[in-house]
Amino acid sequence: MLNYIKADMKRILKKKNFLVVNIVFLLLFALVNLFTRGNTNSLEVYTLKVEIFLSVFVFIEGMNIFLSVYNDNFKAKSMQVEIGRGVERKNVVILKLIETSIIALIASIVVVVFISAMAFIMGLSPTFAEMKEWFVSIIFASIKIIGYTAMASIFVYHKQNAVNGIIAFVLLASNVASSFASIALSQSFVTNIFGNLSDYLFSSAISSVRSEINITMTIIVLAYIVISTLISILIFNKKELEF
Questions:
Q1: Domain segments of the chain: what residues?
Q2: What is the Cα–Cα distance from 61 to 103, expressed in whole angstroms?
Q3: Which residues have CB under 8 Å from 53's CB, separation 6+?
Q4: Cα(217)–Cα(202) distance, rounded to whole angstroms?
Q5: Whole-angstrom distance between the N-terminal and C-terminal Cα of the chain?
Q6: How much is the pLDDT for 243?
Q7: Residue 242 above 80 pLDDT?
Q8: Where are the transmembrane segments (predicted)?
Q9: Measured CA distances, 131 to 15, 46, 183, 207 (Å)
Q10: Rounded distance, CA 62 to CA 67, Å?
Q11: What is the pLDDT of residue 169?
């Protein structure tokens, strides 16, 4: 399994499209800051820009990772080949999520180093506490990517095609899905019976944990990831491989 991860990680991290998207994304952040600093070149304004950047990071970097981890494998049928060589399907599902987590963590480290360096370049001199806060924010953004990937991958394994998963990821990462779910759960007949369930949506639970460590909400966040992974395993195990 370790060799599988190593080989796939090597493929992804050397993928030109993957690298280009990351470089362009970081350069855009740098250019926006350099061209808009003017008379408002303060740490408070910069922090606000970082927060906006991180909200976009979940969508852009998440899509970049999702496409690199899932789309290429299913498109090239390489995942089916690995299964034919003896890799268990459940391991494929788990390993793909592990790869997503590793890449998201690497991206997080790169981003926090970059935004910290940019702050110093702009003469803002952030404190260690402020850089730590940025790091925590990017880690939670990465957890969102992992969670959305776990949920979207259900559709990938169901059809053995990344297209449906990509659509699902877009709806999740853009908060469209959570907005519709929140509207549905806020209906009076639902709240009268079950109370306010909107707080238990993945995005809401993440925000809650980010604001204040909460054991219940932490378990809920993990439950979304674990249950989604188990569903993917069950679905994939029952599917005939498509070559």
A1: 2-238
A2: 10
A3: 29, 115
A4: 9
A5: 22
A6: 45
A7: no
A8: 18-36, 52-71, 92-122, 134-157, 169-195, 215-236
A9: 30, 12, 36, 19
A10: 9
A11: 94
